[in-house]
Model the fold of this input.
Amino acid sequence: MEVFDVNFFLTSFIVLQGQCSGGTFTEYNNLYNTALTGYNKDGRPLQDQNHVMIVVLDFSLLTIADLDDASSKLVTVGLFTILWRDEVITWNQSLYENTKELHIDESLVWKPSMALINTMSINVGLLGFKQSKIEYSSDGVAFWHIADRYQTTCDFDTTYFPFDKQTCELKIVAWDYTIQGLFIYPLKPTVDLTYFSENGAWELVSTETRSEYLAYYSVVVFSLNLKRRPLYFVIYRLIPVFTMLFLNTLVFILPSDSGERVGYAINCLLALAVFLTLVSEGLPGDSEPMPVIGYVLTVYLIISAIICVLTIFILRLHHKEENKEIPPSFRKMYNILTCATCKKRSRTVEAYLSTTDSENVEENDKHKKSSVLPLTWKKLSSRLDFICFISSLSSVITVGVVYFVIVMS
Amino acid sequence: MEVFDVNFFLTSFIVLQGQCSGGTFTEYNNLYNTALTGYNKDGRPLQDQNHVMIVVLDFSLLTIADLDDASSKLVTVGLFTILWRDEVITWNQSLYENTKELHIDESLVWKPSMALINTMSINVGLLGFKQSKIEYSSDGVAFWHIADRYQTTCDFDTTYFPFDKQTCELKIVAWDYTIQGLFIYPLKPTVDLTYFSENGAWELVSTETRSEYLAYYSVVVFSLNLKRRPLYFVIYRLIPVFTMLFLNTLVFILPSDSGERVGYAINCLLALAVFLTLVSEGLPGDSEPMPVIGYVLTVYLIISAIICVLTIFILRLHHKEENKEIPPSFRKMYNILTCATCKKRSRTVEAYLSTTDSENVEENDKHKKSSVLPLTWKKLSSRLDFICFISSLSSVITVGVVYFVIVMS
Amino acid sequence: MEVFDVNFFLTSFIVLQGQCSGGTFTEYNNLYNTALTGYNKDGRPLQDQNHVMIVVLDFSLLTIADLDDASSKLVTVGLFTILWRDEVITWNQSLYENTKELHIDESLVWKPSMALINTMSINVGLLGFKQSKIEYSSDGVAFWHIADRYQTTCDFDTTYFPFDKQTCELKIVAWDYTIQGLFIYPLKPTVDLTYFSENGAWELVSTETRSEYLAYYSVVVFSLNLKRRPLYFVIYRLIPVFTMLFLNTLVFILPSDSGERVGYAINCLLALAVFLTLVSEGLPGDSEPMPVIGYVLTVYLIISAIICVLTIFILRLHHKEENKEIPPSFRKMYNILTCATCKKRSRTVEAYLSTTDSENVEENDKHKKSSVLPLTWKKLSSRLDFICFISSLSSVITVGVVYFVIVMS
Amino acid sequence: MEVFDVNFFLTSFIVLQGQCSGGTFTEYNNLYNTALTGYNKDGRPLQDQNHVMIVVLDFSLLTIADLDDASSKLVTVGLFTILWRDEVITWNQSLYENTKELHIDESLVWKPSMALINTMSINVGLLGFKQSKIEYSSDGVAFWHIADRYQTTCDFDTTYFPFDKQTCELKIVAWDYTIQGLFIYPLKPTVDLTYFSENGAWELVSTETRSEYLAYYSVVVFSLNLKRRPLYFVIYRLIPVFTMLFLNTLVFILPSDSGERVGYAINCLLALAVFLTLVSEGLPGDSEPMPVIGYVLTVYLIISAIICVLTIFILRLHHKEENKEIPPSFRKMYNILTCATCKKRSRTVEAYLSTTDSENVEENDKHKKSSVLPLTWKKLSSRLDFICFISSLSSVITVGVVYFVIVMS
Amino acid sequence: MEVFDVNFFLTSFIVLQGQCSGGTFTEYNNLYNTALTGYNKDGRPLQDQNHVMIVVLDFSLLTIADLDDASSKLVTVGLFTILWRDEVITWNQSLYENTKELHIDESLVWKPSMALINTMSINVGLLGFKQSKIEYSSDGVAFWHIADRYQTTCDFDTTYFPFDKQTCELKIVAWDYTIQGLFIYPLKPTVDLTYFSENGAWELVSTETRSEYLAYYSVVVFSLNLKRRPLYFVIYRLIPVFTMLFLNTLVFILPSDSGERVGYAINCLLALAVFLTLVSEGLPGDSEPMPVIGYVLTVYLIISAIICVLTIFILRLHHKEENKEIPPSFRKMYNILTCATCKKRSRTVEAYLSTTDSENVEENDKHKKSSVLPLTWKKLSSRLDFICFISSLSSVITVGVVYFVIVMS
Done:
């Protein structure tokens, strides 16, 4: 039955748009006054009050004006077309000089009370201009057009920020009558995008409409599937962060004698903390769901702190006096780090060559007992620098890759 | 009597939702006009004006849209169902073709004036759409539904921030009549959560409703017990602060010769001050109650300042010329710090070994009188470094543990 | 006469609250219609138009929602009780089945037009709900209750910030009639605090009410004496600033050879500048009155700059080559600084002891001509360091103490 | 026909402004009452309802109050003059004592419902004061003046920011009637700028008006072509950025022995990151279109990071021990860098001269095998410094020039 | 004629304020009903419609609530007194028991439609409370009082910020009637300041009122001449900036060997950039007019950058190896810098004295060829330091003085 109704409405609608109202002003006034005499705008205009009043909605989206994840707000501009059949305001066209339509002020007639249930405004106002006119055809089909700027809430799931997809809804609830008295449903399965102009920050992927219930009331939902355009975040946040992280790992390349290693490491860490703060301020203050990027930046902060700790540790080794004995544990570690087995031969050669250097000759004089392995604190720290550089750089890259794999899938 | 009333209302309510209004449009209009003839919307619709008008409220919470501790604001979206018995608008169904319900515009009939007394809006508006309809059953029971976005104040107690629990209330006061004339009370002992969808920043623990008085007026309170989800704060604020603090204590591990100790200490202190400022800006500007986290961060700032002072002091010792005599007081302190009694033997051995080092031999030549204890300024500062590192790290951890014990209990 | 009136009102008021309106709904309607027939809401309801209409106001403060010095705003929630005698709406109770009270919609009767003259809202609205009812007793005394959230300006005097006291006022002006026609005055000498709940940032010290004139109109002023709770500012602003200042003075303790003195001094200065900016942003942008704390922070900034200058100057002396002659003026200064007269003897001894040091022996070899006073550039700079440390620390403390003495008194 | 209409309106308009309404107050009231008797404000005042009602709009721009690219908002203050012919309100002047005009409250007569479809306000209100009067001449031409502050959206294209041109539009849609019933078009081809006062941030280049359709409705568009004044951005953002970049390239001039190179490089990088953040916050959060300046700053950030990497690399070479062999690859690179062929001779001379220096004599003693080319690590790093300085400075300038060429064209 | 009118109004006004309305309530109602019978509020209440309706305005300023140059907003609270003569509402006092005044609700009578044309509010509302009463004397003079908070735009000229003077205007336009029908002009030549309370940020220098035209409408302008109190800006912005600049020039005093020169210079530059940003954010984003202070700060930034460049250059000279020949060009420059002619003799003596120093003796041994002028790189850099210090300090002071001369005049 409902499908039939929609087609009926559509037919009336299309027919009506193409015609003009005939007759004189006087005849129009006669019809107008006759139609409203004895009309009760507090009763559903159905001859049989046991029937359900059926109202059909169409939504034409013009623009997505704003979509803010920090305040969970969607602002849209659009046009509602609302159709129903008023069984009281009907007339015989031939009796009124072929007058085909009546425009009656909305305050004088029955109209469905509908409200945006998920509005952001403090007062949930009923839809409508308060001053607009409703158009009636001679068979009682009422056409009501509402254009407005709708500020609705949207439950964001920022887990995969900034590569996230969101589904935002405009929920229209029919008020004043339960579903036994008033039933609303969408005219088309999708939102009308004929006059839609693109938004710069979000891409509209698809739309759909559906019918629902809230308590005893009928609800129509217009839902928009949106995809964030990530370029802004990538350019202004991710590139600086990754640049900073890459520079941070370079602290191990910086010569230990430069006297600037720790200052460099702490500066990189501070810069990362600043970017972490910037990103966190641009996100909603919700703890559930937590964006993956938040965890990633925290992990990066901790990696940066570990780099700082390692820098201090290596610097301490580097500044040890050369005549102090290197403990066997360090020697062992050194051997392991230089991959004792696989590089044995090459190292022997190396050791041979290095002893011929003037430097090592001197050292040999001093440290007789360490002659087998002419390991010095400086050498140890230099080796550690290399190991740390490789491992910190690879951990930064690994975390980044894992993040992109997660959010992209 | 009141309990009876509630049941009576509930019965009417449930029955009404399942039926539809019979009769024709004309008969509906007759009934409508008869009911409103001679009706006075400024008088309580009670046949005996000595009676108290009893109004029952139910609140169905849809979402907690916002809960902001800085501005002490709670924003909720919900649905009020308001029920009372109008003894004037009653009719015999059989006389009106079985018409079971009337929908009358709220501006034409008596209705309880109720206001949210703890609203954030500048104008305390009366509840209501200004345009909605009230539904009457034939025995005069009136059903009034109000859906809105309510912006109310909530008195936050941020002492245990961010592990705090809050109780926020929506206080509805019945206006225009004192409790002798109008009495409101909640329909159910809790808020209806059938259509509730979770909030990302706060967890709704439980709800309750109760009746109260304000001056001469009847009040109904819907209270929500909420618990903050702390993950956001932990990730974006606490982890960076603790990372920074841990790095700060590492200043004593940094070699004194690196020439970066003081710069490192002051940078860590500045970073802490920045985070203190960030946290303070996210909290309400109230001095009472003061969040414990505020005191903790201040204590951490002072610890960080003490670390800075100690660093400067140790650096001064370190830079003393070696041929300057170490005062006996410092020697004593050194002995105490190295735990004279318990480590005596090990130290003797140590001293023995060290004198065999080439370094100490040289020193022995210079400082004859200090031969018993070959204490140098460098040794002293190195020992102090170790002591300071241990004590600062343990004080940071202690304060953190004490904080968590306080806020968690 | 006026004192009599108040008592008369109070008596009627108290009596009325304890009774209920008798009679039937029909009888109530009869009375209602009789009372409003021929009523003119544009005329003062006085039988003799030469009389002054006297209106009495009571204000019950519920909460101080916000008090913001940056925008000079006070937000309060409260309940106005407004009383007057309508000489036209009176009736004989016995004729109307003992009906004791009438509730009439405010749009149908005369009521005093009153406005909050110091409101923050852009439109100075008249007080009132626009929909509430006014209660009349049989002798014509009208009771009107208004609860609202009032956003008023408050002229802050932040001279002694954050230890300041403010007096904020709600000024109600009677509109439409000059004082010859309408006179309003407060019911009680203080604001009613029965339902008041404390504010976390401000303490309500006392309240008072008074009558005033504005041009030709009668005004009632409800004034609130408030005292700021300074803990927030002390914890989050003053403690960091003083910590920073104390650390700043320590620059002179930092060894000159550390190579970090100037960096340390400039970092402390920058931190102070940041806090100065933070404090300045939290204050109103007014130049009159200027908070004392603003001057104090500026003085601290200048002290910090002087410390920086001195650090550079001392460093310059310290870096002078030792074989350069110290000019007599410096020698003289040195003598003065070491307090030539009072410390003469001790210094002679000191000089004696020092010449026995190996260090000075070497120096004596080099500088024959300076043998009388073995003053070196390093010694001079070291002495200056000590003097500067003492004087900068004492000036910081002095300024702080002077500030507290000023603001506390 | 339409052109004729406009002239007709203009004539009436001009004539009317110069005259005054004759007659007495009584006669005016007679005419007023006669005109409104039987008037139906819900019917188009056309004797033949088959005709289209034509409404003409003129827009006089007073000021551009605000134009904010971050929120895509245009705020204008202007004056609409709306003209149409009401065929019902007409009279014979001679019958009414020469009364030439009627002023009727807008709520009593038919008027075109028009709305700003691209408004920023949450409620798309119909145009109009709600209380103003419409002026009618005796031939039925209605003059309606509306002055307001219009807050409209403007789709910014910030690609060439801050040297961009924008076209912002005020779109007026005729409501309630489809184009068969109501047609609006602009009075003049441009916006009236007689009373326009210039805006400090944007230059109004030109204006135009046009007619359009939206769904079934008639639309008039007033479009403003604006050009941003870039001085603010140049002074406060570009000059600091370029200053910072220039200083950044100077890191290669800074002596390697100064021990401040890396600190200097990282500080310049951080300053750039701060300015990048400042610029990004002043732009809309859109990813499409992305301003070219965003890419430029990102490229600059990467150049700055590369400078940092090169600094570390050169510093590493500089700190290499001189007795370590320089690998042939470095030698080759050095030769290439010093442009082996073209500078051969000059270098030979240089080499000759340098060997006579005492420094090189010493070096010659140490490194026999490198006697042919007395290349040292220090020399290599010094040469690299020069190359890097030249190339970084030229790349900074190149990117800047390319940017200006793109945005200026 | 107009001057006469004003006096006439003033007389009526003063007389009326001192009297009270006689008669009984019943008689008052009779008069009220008589006056309004047949009244048409859409017609100008002039017996001869050819006359111009003259309306007189007086404005009493209470406070300047806000004056914000960033958003070009002026917020004032004030009281309008509006006077005109209604030739229809007149009566013979003796016929109505000496009733001297009528108070009629503004919605029932003709009143001039006036609007603030330069309002900041989105909807240009007509002036008025919507509910207030207009007072009529028996000769028809109408008194209308409007108190409100007015949010108007003010076209700021911040060229001489913060020592600027502004002229802000409240422009009231008479609506609905052209100047042939309605003419408004100010009652007094200045704004009434009887109840004015001073603003903390701006000083009210003088006020004036004048009559104007806008299109065909009459306009009254109340203009306020204001002078900014600059103390806030001086204390919180200029003093820190000049402190920072002074410290910046001290970089040349800092010993070259300290190893902190470049770090110091870049830190000062960054601090300046931060203050430049702070100042720019407090100013409107307009490019025309550009505040002089913006240019000054940019010049200071460039000076600071030049200081940084010079520091690097001098440091490079200082780090040159001493055995490298100083090119003749540098020698020449040195001679010029030391002012060859005027200081010749003193320098010769100096040179003589210095050669006797042990230092120079050593140098003489090394550099035979430079014996004539024992110029070293260190000497050259030291001399350059001094020159640069003097010139940078003087350029900073010069720019500052020029700025103050410009803005003060």
